[in-house]
Amino acid sequence: MHYCPGCMHGVIHRLIAEAIDELGIMERTIGIAPVGCAVFAYDYFLCDMVEAAHGRAPCVATGIKRVLPESVVFTYQGDGDLAAIGCGEVVHAAARGERITVFFINNAIYGMTGGQMAPTTLLGQVTTTTPYGRDARQAGYPIRVCEMLGTLTGPAYLERVTVISPAHAARAKKAIRRAFQTQLNDEGFSLVEILSTCPTRWGMTPVAATEWLTENMLPHYPLGEFTPAQRRGA
Length: 234
Ligand SMILES: Cc1ncc(C[n+]2csc(CCOP(=O)(O)OP(=O)(O)O)c2C)c(N)n1
Ligand code: SF4
Hints:
Helix content is 38%, strand content 17%. The relative contact order is 0.16. It has helices at 9-23, 57-67, 79-85, 87-95, 136-139, 145-149, 166-184, 199-202, 206-220, and strands at 29-33, 48-51, 72-78, 101-106, 155-162, 189-195, 224-225. It has 9 helices and 7 strands, in the order H-E-E-H-E-H-H-E-H-H-E-H-E-H-H-E. It has a 7-stranded mixed β-sheet with strand order 2-1-3-4-6-5-7, sandwiched between helices. By secondary structure, the chain is of the alpha/beta class. The structure holds thiamine diphosphate and iron/sulfur cluster. Thiamine diphosphate (TPP) is lined by residues 35-38, 53-54, 78-81, 107, 110-113, 118, 198.
């Protein structure tokens, strides 16, 4: 594994892989790897994998799913990848109700390129591009992706989870399975946001990073389901 000690990308990979195995869909699953620390995700999944340019994973997933409707297609994207350059792509894929599944890893920072501010960086958070802490007047406000997509009609399932404890990981696994099931049921677009740590770019030990996530990210990014009201129970 090329991830740093304490990084949760590896744990999340494991949960997705377990869900694919349990659902018995590996032979027809196609994953889309992102730009960012998970760029080598294709090394860790045994299903077919495709690499997409920065933020374009939902477009690649849309094309594959439309050409191969019997396939199960997922993207794996960081917050820089999905909420910055790829923001339009994910919003329109969700609005169109594409039958794809998106796993959105929110660690509130650009990990791979050196720890710059991401759209999800919290107000006051120190990054290499916000050395005095993110200031809303200069850098705007953090984007809550699940809440934003929850205003659309296309998404059939949206949920925010985390993997900071075994109990949280079990809940995350359930959400990952449900997202795949949503696609298998041909219901529409599904996305699971997973709050994650970046001990290296946050400049913390793995334990301190988990505590920082709990104290700072959970209040701003509440866990739970954000499926649009008109789609809930559909
Ligand atoms: C078109 C393009 N622009 C910029 C980059 C540089 N780049 C690579 S990774 C990355 C940020 C990734 O951050 P995030 O998506 O949050 O993933 P993380 O590394 O935190 O897992 C950027 C800007 C690129 N590879 N391609
Ligand atoms: S830089 Fe951050 S996101 Fe990237 S592997 Fe290291 S801890 Fe994980």
